[in-house]
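Support request, please re-run this one:
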Amino acid sequence: MKTYELIAPCHFGLEAVLKKEIYDLGYEITKVEDGRVTFEGDAEAICRANIFLRTAERVLLKAGQFHAETFEELFQGVKGIPWERYIPEDGKFWVAKASSIKSKLFSPSDIQSIVKKAMVERMKQRYHLQWFEESGAHYPLRIFLMKDEVTLALDTSGDSLHKRGYRTLSGRAPITETLAAALILLTPWKRDRILVDPFCGSGTFPIEAAMIAGNIAPGMNRSFTAENWTNLIERQLWYDTVEEADEMVNTDSSVDIQGYDIDGEIVKAARDNARRAGVEHLIHFQQRAVSQLSHPKKYGFIITNPPYGERLEEKEALPSLYKEIGESMKRLDSWSAYLITSYEEAERYIGRKADKNRKIYNGMLKTYFYQFLGPKPPRRKFPGKAE
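Re-run finished. Output below.
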């Protein structure tokens, strides 16, 4: 089967998490850059990456790469790519996104226009046509320019992979599903440990944790643009991959995942989202303030996205809110806590310096993933095993 170079974009700062996911799927990684992991795979890999990867934003099929400093060089470079290998003569193709960093060509609209013209010229010659109906499957293209190096790739996913299909209502400061999954995977949390999100909003952290615990593939219940690329991917491969994912699901295990929020309506929305994700029975949602956070068991995890104070009136309330977070953490002194926030004074008002701190870009917003590490639980003793 033909092998392709596939590009998986992700949040800046979380490349290592995605890299491990791709390795675990069994594919060879060829390059890791800021916000992107490139790997090799066949048509089946396109299906499996879209359905199984929790932290990738989309899966792109690399069509070509070259250097260009002028629009003429861009035109000729694009025209030299064998588009007929990827796009049939009735395919609908367009440049969905163009981005340019530190390059002489920087106008997205001009780049998009020239790339489309060059693709049309190439396909006119190869298909011996003067006009393309574009009535068939969709082939959206993404183009990146970095220091005059041009990369062109077809988008196999369509909607971003963070759109799992379960979230219809979000809180005021939602965290994307892919970012939530990546942050959970950055922690040592496992399904046999307690997890509480005291600012659960629409339930993204608890739902993603429950999907990880239940081995539910994030892309099982949605569609992808490349499902209609029958010239490249047999439709049966999609069915086989969904069947593979279905066989791996195990939601019978007893887990202790909890989500709290002070807003009762948001808690209802979180329950609805969990039901659509098929994990409602794995999560306990409750209307509760962070000041009431307590738990009788030891060695649990707090993983949360507290308010950042993006609005002026909210910013005034942040010192007292983060003090409450700190008081709750003191009561749960054997627990570990992981917070993502853009609030620069978080550690000061929590009253404790984080053991680890990771800078992560949530879209264009610079945030910090503060990691307050609790003691490790004692090792379990197994009958008949030597000390």
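The first helix runs from residue 15 to 25. Residues 4-155 form a domain with the VC0802-like fold (CATH 3.30.2130.30).
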